[in-house]
Structure of O-acetyl-ADP-ribose deacetylase (Regulator of RNase III):
Amino acid sequence: MITLQQGDITKVKVDAIVNAANSSLLGGGGVDGAIHRAGGNAILEACVKIRNKQGSCKTGEAVITTGGNLPAKFVIHTVGPVWNGGNNNEPQLLENAYRNSLQLAVDNNLQSVAFPNISTGIYHFPKEIAADIAVTAAKDFLMKHPEMDITFVCFDKENYDLYNALL
Ligand code: AR6
């Protein structure tokens, strides 16, 4: 099942929300900043532990932490690509970010996952291409895992309208 809503992902009560993080995992602006602010220090502490163990999180990969004070139980931190013209594997890396986040949810026996529009803010990925990649990745994943509930949480109306047309 795929659900679409417009709003703030930090308010969404699902098993895991996905964070559009950077490879440092130490927080930043945009949705990353909002998630760390709303979820509290437990999330950052968990990120620091992961970094100490594995180093940074590569683009397209994902890690999981507690949701801290969020209504969501967990946060899956993934790193989308910075848009750099489109000939630097950006589409594949964005698809990897969605797919690896969903796989990590399944590996942790989670059923409901909410995504922001990864890479379409500070990382400047064109929204229309990104929406197509996100929806295609979600539909592909649901073929193998029909029990999953995937929600797209769009912050801005432009993204909401793009997803609405695709879904
Ligand atoms: N809920 C849902 N979506 C949000 C929220 C929110 N509270 N706040 C922003 N968005 P961005 P990126 C949307 O810039 O492009 C950070 O500094 C926003 O409108 O958060 O992947 C990281 O640390 C946009 O559609 O992430 C990285 O350094 C989408 O979330 C870098 O930004 C993603 O925008 C990652 O850049």
In short: Strands lie at 2-6, 16-21, 62-66, 74-79, 112-115, 149-154. The two ends are 11 Å apart (CA to CA).
